[in-house]
Write a structure and sequence with these properties.
Mean pLDDT: 93
Helix content: 10-25%
CATH class of one domain: Alpha Beta
CATH architecture of one domain: 3-Layer(aba) Sandwich
Oligomer: single chain
Number of strands: 15
CATH topology of one domain: Beta-lactamase
């Protein structure tokens, strides 16, 4: 039991001819006794206000979110939509959509593994690709500004998400190689050799993208997503364990007897060179610090 205050309905501005109306100054302008509504706890300064709620509404669009431990692939949280009651379709694992520019780090990883460095200078300039008879000419442009900067370093190109630089990288190292990296990371099973796919024009799932980013974050080791950590039988014996890393010394008998500390032995496949994984993570930190994702700086923690 609680109350909905004016603060909880301020967002509910009535649409008037395609534009938003005035901000409500009283709850009675939005709600009447007997209305059945969705409500959320009202937060101020990051803390819930006791006994107060805010008005919610059923969204027209459902989204997806996956939170994963990058070292083990353990899924810590997954949202597949607003309401399972309304739709049993899990958008985190079943919805195929274009990753867009979030695929670029895979392209840049391939480039860093094959002769490029963060300080390599690449041309950001208009580019035209003849698509063949009757298909016309493809002219990729930079989304953020539509302008071109001329020679830029790879670091600044990723920071500003420059499309023309990414296309030139794909032309140079070849789409078959990018397709191989996309398979390694599990983003796509088969990537067509079209340059637009270097800009994320293919379709994949949120779960696949999060898994790929986990491999960038953990130093390039392969991880497989899992919703089941381990299974024990009725006697407490582990009969299945997702994490296959060996822990030497974890089963030491008795108490501490000055034995060596336990060692985690990781035999998982190295999908990406660890130095490349470090470099691409550092480049993506620049995207947050001074690029297209500066809004995320407010989190106040290291973010790439």
């Amino acid at each position: 039991t609680g109350i909905v205050t004016v603060d909880g309905v301020r967002w509910a501005r009535a649409a008037q001819g395609g534009t938003k109306g005035k901000t409500p100054t009283a709850v009675s302008q939005v709600l009447q006794p007997g209305d059945v509504i969705y409500a959320d706890p009202l937060y101020k300064d990051g803390q819930p206000v006791e006994g107060q709620y805010r008005l919610r509404q059923i969204p027209e669009v459902s989204g997806a979110m996956v939170v994963m431990d990058p070292w083990t692939g353990r899924v810590l949280a997954m949202v597949g939509g607003f309401s399972f009651d309304q739709s049993q379709f899990n958008r985190a694992t079943q919805a195929y959509r274009q990753p867009g520019s979030s695929f670029k780090p895979i392209v840049y990883s391939a480039a860093l593994d094959n002769g490029y460095t963060p300080s390599t200078v690449v041309l950001d300039a208009p580019i035209e690709i003849d698509q063949g008879q009757g298909a016309g000419v493809w002219r990729p442009e930079n989304f953020s500004s539509g302008k071109f900067q001329g020679p830029v370093t790879l670091r600044n190109a990723l920071r500003q998400s420059l499309n023309t630089v990414t296309v030139r990288l794909a032309q140079d190292i070849g789409m078959p190689l990018i397709g191989e990296y996309a398979r390694r990371f599990g983003v796509y099973d088969e990537l067509p050799n079209y340059l637009s796919y270097a800009l994320g024009a293919g379709e994949t799932t949120a779960m696949r993208m999060v898994t790929a980013y986990s491999m960038l974050a953990n130093g390039g080791r392969r991880v497989k997503p899992t919703l089941i950590d381990r299974i024990q039988d009725r006697y407490g014996h582990t009969i299945f364990k997702h994490d296959q890393r060996e822990c030497r010394g974890c089963d030491a008998p008795g108490g501490w007897k000055n034995q060596p500390e336990p060692q985690l032995i990781d035999r998982r496949e190295q999908v990406l060179d660890s130095m490349t994984a470090y470099q691409i993570t550092e480049l993506m930190e620049g995207v947050v610090q001074a690029g297209t994702a500066t809004v995320v700086r407010d989190v106040g923690k290291p973010v790439a």
